[in-house]
Amino acid sequence: MARSEHSGAPAAPVAPAAVELPSDGQVRAAVTAFAMLAEPTRLRLLWLVSAEELDVSSLAARLATSVSIVSAHLAKLRLAGLVETRKDGRHVLYRARDTHVRRLIAEAMFHADHQITGAADHD
């Protein structure tokens, strides 16, 4: 907790009114992203494609599920703007769209790890 420079007492929190609300468009985009993360297979897919580019068959094998299930989930993630593709010969490789998506997935999983293990909170 921050301390006042003069008294050593805790600094007063910033009044909520001083924080500007996100726009309706930003909230809709974030809600869409979080809705995509609320499904276990999609979260696992995003975890994998945050680390490396993978094709549908490789992803299906890693998740021990069918190519059609993985394809359906990837289509939703792509429409939501969370993954992008790159052609490599006959293969289509999937990866997390950008650093924001990779950080979002990593932070969600690190938070989950802290919840499960009881690791101390930190800021």
From TrEMBL:
<dbReference type="InterPro" id="IPR011991">
    <property type="entry name" value="ArsR-like_HTH"/>
</dbReference>
<dbReference type="InterPro" id="IPR001845">
    <property type="entry name" value="HTH_ArsR_DNA-bd_dom"/>
</dbReference>
<dbReference type="InterPro" id="IPR036388">
    <property type="entry name" value="WH-like_DNA-bd_sf"/>
</dbReference>
<keyword id="KW-0804">Transcription</keyword>
<keyword id="KW-0805">Transcription regulation</keyword>
<dbReference type="InterPro" id="IPR036390">
    <property type="entry name" value="WH_DNA-bd_sf"/>
</dbReference>
<dbReference type="InterPro" id="IPR051011">
    <property type="entry name" value="Metal_resp_trans_reg"/>
</dbReference>
<feature type="domain" description="HTH arsR-type">
    <location>
        <begin position="22"/>
        <end position="116"/>
    </location>
</feature>
<dbReference type="Pfam" id="PF01022">
    <property type="entry name" value="HTH_5"/>
</dbReference>
<protein>
    <submittedName>
        <fullName>Metalloregulator ArsR/SmtB family transcription factor</fullName>
    </submittedName>
</protein>
<keyword id="KW-0238">DNA-binding</keyword>
